[in-house]
Amino acid sequence: MEQHPLKSFGKPEGLVGHFLGLVMSKSNRKLGEWTIEVLHLDDGVDVLEIGFGPGTTIELMTQKYPNAFIAGIDHSDVMVKQATRRNRKAVSEGRVEIREGSVAALPYEGESFDNVYAINSFQFWPDRLANLKEVKRVLKKGGNIAITLQPRWTKSDDEVRQVGKEVSDWLTDAGYQNIHISFKVMNPISAICVTAQKK
Fold this sequence. Notes:
Elements: H1 14-27, H2 29-39, E1 46-50, H3 56-64, E2 69-74, H4 77-86, H5 88-92, E3 96-100, E4 113-119, H6 128-138, E5 139-149, H7 157-173, E6 177-184, E7 191-197
Parallel strand pairs: 1-2, 1-4, 2-3, 4-5
Antiparallel strand pairs: 5-7, 6-7
């Protein structure tokens, strides 16, 4: 799988990072809404977002699921600050926890979350197979993962579907089951959301 040609999106830093956060808050909002829809969450669940960017999907989660606990990790301190500001009230109420961290070593105990999702960050993960196994560690038995990507480096729906197949293969290799690929027509390129379950 290729990476986004603008690698700055992988770890926004400084003033440029602040600007990229504003861009992502608009461009990723529809992807966040779709991911929530695909996950079919129950209120009261424990959810983790990996690579939350400016925190827009966390904000959507708190609005839709007022009794859920939503945690997020991102390795960009700029994004941590933006997401914390955006979700200040929910953080102060203890419904949201935002941390700086890496998918390579999630700062949570095993079987902590019912659901884990990542939106437009999987292409930047340093070791996809090992990282998916690390996600599986913090998922409860029967818990679900959702990997959503709008691969702007692709040029056609067929290429987007191929990205979905690649993500599916990674999940299979990491030991997940019940893998399903959802496809959504969007501009400027379509998107995929690949869901899977911990055995």
